[in-house]
Amino acid sequence: MRRVAVIGVGVTKFGRHDRTSAELFAEAAADALADAEMPAARVQALYYGNVVGGETEHQLHTGPQAASVLGIPTVPTTRFETACASSHAAFRHAVMEVASGASDVVLVGGAERVLNVPTADSTEYFAYASDASWEQTLGLTFPGVFALVARAHMHKYGTTEEQMAAVAVKNHKHGVLNPKAQFRKEITLDTVLSSPKVADPLKLYDCCPFTDGGAALVLVSEDVARTARRPIWVLGSAAASDWMLIGDKRDLSRVAATERAAAAAYRQAGIGPQDIDVVELHDCFTIAEIVATEGLGLFEPGTGGLAAEKGWTSLGGKIPVNPSGGLKAKGHPIGATGAAQICEIVTQLRREAGPRQVDGARRGLTHTLGGNTATVLVSVFGRE
Amino acid sequence: MSEPAVTVERFFEQARAGELTGIRCGACRALAIPPKTLCPECGARRWETVPLSGDGTIASFTVIRVAPRGHADDVPYAIAAVRLREGVSLLGRVVDVPLETLAVGLPVRFRPIVVKDRSAIGFGPA
Fold first, then answer.
1. pLDDT value of position B2
2. B120: which chain A residues are within 8 Å (Cβ-Cβ)?
3. Contact in structure between B64 and B80 (CB atoms under 8 Å)
4. Is A222 on the interface with B (CB under 8 A)?
5. How far is A244 from chain B (nearest CA, A)?
6. Which string of DSSP letters, residue by residue, matches B30-45?
7. Cβ distance of B116 and A245 shorter than 8 Å
8. What is the CATH number of the domain that holds A39?
9. Which domain holds residue A360?
10. Could you tell me if residue A136 is inside a domain?
11. Max CA-CA distance within chain B?
12. Is A155 left (phi over 0), alpha (psi -120 to 50) or beta?
C-alpha cells in the first residue's frame, strides 16, 4: 500500500447558516483545494458525509449534489452514513482508494444543516440512529444514550458531575481561541451544574449544540504529496463497530468500539498512545470525552474524569484534548464533524493553529463516534 | 433454510400479551435477544425460543426531560437498561417507580406497555 497525505484543509464557520449543506460543503472544499494549491480538475473522487439531509432538507443523493455545487460534477461520489462519524468513515475509505493506487487525488468532506428545523424535530431525527423497534419507541434520545453511559461510569468509578462539567469548561475555554467555533465564550463549573437537565445526569451544558457547517480536505498519494508545501501523513485509519442495541452492549461504562478502533489504528501507525501529542475526539457529551480518553489509552479506565478535573487535557496539559473547542464549543454539524476534526489536527501538526497551537506537536489523533456508540473511527497523523 | 425463530413483530406481539421471548442457540446454548440470524458466539443458525422471566435489576438509567417530537407529551420519563436474571439485558421505560428512587441495582419486573400505539418494553416495581 502507498503512503497517503493530507495537503489541504477547509472548514466553514460553525453555527447557523442560511445555506444548503451542499453550499456549505462547497465553500469548505474550495478552501481546501486552494490551501492545497490543487486545481479542481485533478480531483478523481469525492467521499462525502451527510446524515439527516433526507429529513432536514428533503435531500438524498447528496454526494453528486455536493460535487455539482462545488463544480466538479463528473467525479465519482459516494455518500457515507455512519451517524455522527460519517465523514470520518468517508475519510477511511478515501485513504484506502489512494493507498491502493486507484486514485492519486481525492476530496473528502461532509456537511450538515439542522438549525432550519425546531429542536424537537432535530432531536427526533438524530434518534433515528438508534434502533427503531426497540429504542425509538421508548423515546430514547442521544443525550439519553450518553446519560446511560454516564450513570454506569459514575456507579463503577465514582466519576462526578463536577468532573464532567470540567470537560465543558475546558472545551469552551479552547473554543474562545478558535475563530470558526460556534461558541466563543468562557463558562464556569456553575454554568454547567446549574443548567437545565436534559437527560439526568446530563444537563444542557454537558451537551454539544446543534450546528450547521461543512468541512473538507484533500488527500493525495506520496508522489503528489512530495510536490506539496506541507503534507501531513496518514499513519493509520481504522473503524470498529459494536452491538446496535444498548441492551446488547457488554459494559455501558466503556465504548468497546473506541478500544478496538484505537488498537487497530495504533498498530497500523506502529505507535502507541504515549506517542500522541494532540487529540481531537468526539465530545458530543462531556461524559463521551471522559470515556474516549480512557478508550484511546490516554488514561487508565476510571481516571478520565480526574484527568479533566486536573487540567491534564487542557492546552498546556499532559495531553491536550480538543484544542479546537471540540464538538462542545466548536459545534457538531454531524456529517462534517469527522472531517473537521482531521482539519484541526492537520492544522496543529503544520504548527498553524495560532493561539491554540499545541507546542511542538508531531503526532495527532482523531476519534469520531457514531450514534449509539455502535460506530467508531480513529485515525493517526504525523509530520515527516 | 430455517424460518427465523422470533421476528421483531412477533416479539412485540408477545410482549404486548405479557410474554418476553428470548432465543437460545441450538449448538452452543448461548442466550440472546431476537432478532439474530447467526449465533454471535458460535456462528450456528439454529435457534430455539425460550421464555424470559422478566425479573432483573437496573444496570443504568436516565430521566428524559427533552424528548423527540413524538414523545414530548410524556416528559419527564425514565429509561433504564435492565439486566435480566437470565443474563441478557433490555432497555425499557420504567413506570410506577418514583423518579427520585431510581438507582443502579434496583430490582424491577417486566411490564408490557404501549407507547404511541406501539408495543414497547416497560419495567415496574419488582
1. 59
2. 137-138
3. no
4. no
5. 12
6. -EEPSP-SS-TTT---
7. no
8. 3.40.47.10
9. 4-117+209-382
10. no
11. 50
12. alpha
Q: Please, are residues A88 and A379 in contact by the beta-carbon 8 Å criterion?
A: yes
Could you give the 3-state DSSP secondary structure of residue A275? helix
Count Cβ neighbours within 10 Å for each residue of A231-261 and write b for 16 or more, e otherwise: bbbbbbbbbbebbbbbbbbeebbbbbbbbbb
Q: What is the per-residue pLDDT across B43-74, written as a single tens digit (0 to 9) for each? A: 999 999 999 999 999 999 999 999 998 899 99
Is residue A182 in a domain?
A: no
Cα separations in angstroms, A99 against A95, A158, A196, A218, A233: 6, 44, 48, 14, 12
**Residue from the list B12, B81, B90 with its beta carbon closest to the beta carbon of A133:** B12
Residue reference for cell 433490555? B90
Spell out the residues 6+ positions from residue A24 whose beta carbon is closer than 8 angstroms to its own. A12, A17, A111, A112, A113, A212, A213, A214, A333, A336
Helix H or strand E encompassing A33: helix A21-36
Query: What percentage of chain A reaches a pLDDT higher than 70?
Result: 100
- Counted domains in chain A: 1
Cβ atoms < 10 Å from Cβ of A164: 29
- Nearest C-alpha in A relative to B61: A148
Residue ranges per domain, chain B?
A: 8-52, 55-125
Pick among B9, B63, B65, B73 to test the A interface (most A CBs inside 10 A): B65
- pLDDT the model gives residue B1: 46
Cα(A215)–Cα(B25) distance, rounded to whole angstroms?
A: 46
Q: Give the active site residues of A.
A: 84, 332
Q: Is residue A47 part of a domain?
A: yes
Identify whether A174 is part of a domain: no
Min Cα separation A33/chain B (Å): 39
What confidence tens digit (pLDDT) does each residue in A306-316 have?
Answer: 999 999 999 99
Q: Is the pLDDT confidence value at B3 over 80?
A: no
CATH of domain B55-125: 2.40.50
First to last CA, chain B: 40
Residue with cell 485533478: A42
Query: Residue B76: which pLDDT band, with cuts at 50, 70 and 90?
Result: very high
Contacts of A227 (CB under 8 A, 6+ apart): none
CA–CA separation, A305 vs A284, rounded Å?
A: 16
- A248: chain B residues, CB-CB within 8 Å: 33, 89
DSSP 8-state secondary structure symbol assigned to residue A101: T
Residue A47 backbone class (left: φ over 0; alpha: ψ -120 to 50; beta: rest)? beta
